[in-house]
Amino acid sequence: MINPISGLSYVIALGIKYPESVQAKRLASSNIEKYGFSRIYHFHVRKTGGTSINNAFLSLGNIDGNEFRREHNAKKIKRSLSQDRVYVSWDRYLINQGNYFYGWSHYPKHELSVPDSTFSFAVFRDPVDRVISHYGMIKHFSDNNIDHPCMKIEKLWLSRGGGVVDFVLQMPKEHRLNQLFMFSKSFDINEAIDNINSLSAYYFTENLEDAFSDLSSKLGVALPYLHSRKGLYSASTDENIRNNLKELLGDEYLLFTQLRHST
To answer: The dihedral of CA 151, 157, 160, 161: what is its sign?
Structure first.
């Protein structure tokens, strides 16, 4: 399904030998003329519905975006071509280089230097709902012996007999407050707000269908509305658990509330 991208020379970056693709550079240079922007980059916060958006972009041209993403993720060099569109992910060098139509990763903003004239966006979610979803995903993987790469570290956050609050207590701060950390290395709310406001757009999981519509309109592409990775494990929560979680996620709630009030 994924077309190969020709490379005529190589460059060593971050200890990796990259084929330098004239074709990728040529296709990327035509984005301005075709779409009015040089590239699209998604600052993908985990468990916010971002995979659904990624799959929609990968589905352009009536292909199976989920299957395309699996093939793409299996590649050592995360650069793929589909119908004259170049996609990159999970690679700081390729993301910063800018020769693509659409890129994404979970890397925080301070670890990247995304080029100017990029249409950049992110999706945010109620912090309690986000960590409950994260817990449900890891619990599902654990209960079903699913060997997802994240399990090497994140299965350790599950406490035997513990629930979602214990899970969140075990999470490193950059994962627990991931929405804040994505836009401020020091977890500074004002810095995060400034960085988020520098994006071309931002959306909310609670209104994800509106995000598809707005992105389609702004970018001139017909994104199919998809809902990928629906939760397969329903965590038991009550008002007391939610209140405990909200206390643990206090700074991120302040960020989320400000973002909500500014839209």
So the answer is: negative
